[in-house]
Queue: 3 jobs
Job 1
Amino acid sequence: MGIDGAAVGRGSASTAGAARAAPAASAATAEITLEEAFHGTTRLVEVDGKRLEITIPKGADTGTRIRLSGRGPGGGDLFVTVRIRPDRRFTRRAADLERDLPLTLEEALLGADVPVTTLKGRVVLTIPAGTQTGRTFRLTGQGMPRFRADGTGDLYVRARIVIPTDLSDEARATARAFLDLVHQPDPR
């Protein structure tokens, strides 16, 4: 007898009841958009000549692995790795999102209510007077859903002031008169 009363001995595979080797696992990749990751989606993947529909839960991120037991070749497991395409509007940091918000000189200087596009829709953000480029506003609950967990991340919006470039002579003179009134100290 062996340890803990287990029988230990030699014998042929047929007499020892040898276990069969488990089928090998296989892998596939599914590429989706950030918006699809926000809502959850399905994808068709081809494995061993067969097309399989997989469900990608909301909140999935690049590198998320989804295991499909017994769906791979020979009955093995299939591991699907998610890849999120880069988004032109948003940068993702786990469940949080970041984006730039272009503001006119008037909006930054005097303040304004500005529409902001989120993955949930549009919201209105109040920009206070005197907002500087780089100031970040936090929009709570406007980020990504947490993957297989409760809650939602936040959206961080960075102000980016867009200065007019084509000034007429009259506009330039008016701007000069305004700047003489304000007398802004050297910020450097």
Note: Confidence is low (pLDDT under 50) at residues 1-15.
Job 2
Amino acid sequence: MRFHPVLHVYKLHDGTDFGAACGTPIKAPYAGTVSAAYFNAGYGNRLMLDHGVVDGRRVVSGFNHATSYRVGVGDRVAKGEVIGYVGTTGYSTGCHLHLMVWLNGQMVNPMSWY
């Protein structure tokens, strides 16, 4: 739980934030297929990558608050490919990437997977 800097309430922080200058390229951590790309009030510009089964586990990652994305739903991306650019869209107080990871449908700390 943390005190949310925009909503001013205590709320679960469900990902890991990586501070970076707006416009910094966001690269795909693994190959995958873009399963969703949309705007959400909280997450801003959001992109979901389905990596399929990796080491016996279904892996999906989410990239939030981007200025823009270079890929769209259905696109296949390679590991290391630029998929978008860091931004500050949605409930955000500065440029950063809010990264989320799900293993077999359960949200996990991204640092435990990468």
Note: The radius of gyration is 14 Å.
Job 3
Amino acid sequence: MLIAIDIGNTRIKAGLLRKNKLIQVSYFNNTDELTGYINSVNCMYAAVSSVVPEKTEIVKKNINTKNVFIISHKVKTNLNLSYTTPETLGTDRLSSAEGAFYLFNKTEAFKNYSKEIYILSIDFGTATTVNVIEYPGKFTGGLIAPGIDMMFSSLNQNTAVLPLLNISNYNSIIGIDTNSSIAGGVITSAIGLIEKVIRYLKDEKSASEIFIYITGGNAKKIIPHLTFDFIYEEGLIFYGINSLWRLNKEFSSHQ
């Protein structure tokens, strides 16, 4: 059994996987809670994706698991990274892209793929990130934008009178008062970002099909407002972490 750990900017979470199947997801407020949980589970193997290096070191130092695999831009992947600065590619993005690629390869669509197929992994988290994979496995890049909560917060903090709102204030694209106008602007920006990528891939890259995997802390809030086809996978990053660990596990005990 593997415990896959995702240390993000806002949330810390862990997933337990047995025989490549995600069986449990847990959330934590801090590294103390996380390390206590890891030690109670007593897994032989752990794999970590982290965008907060200091928290990574705390976890490594305080867990009993000796076989710890830390994901970085140097690990082997199932993707061909076409990224000019791989050292700046967040391991959360890498793991989510790997997870989407792994899950797609288990679908029926995989058996009838063409070179015009694209796979998107979209994470509605602290930031909204989009990763683009051109089949059969070229990671072509992506987009990073402010997350939904960050946009709401920025409008409140950087203006004199605009209130702090959230997605519950959203009713339609065109707002009929200030609150609904703010919500309309934020949510339409988030959704419009994805729709623009879809149009670009279809118009400029002749994409015949686009398979979209959605995850992240804000995903369930925005899903009711999406009009394109997608697959929601809460544990997308864990499938990616597991896939990377299996590909690199002969090196995991040396980190």
Note: The mean pLDDT is 94.
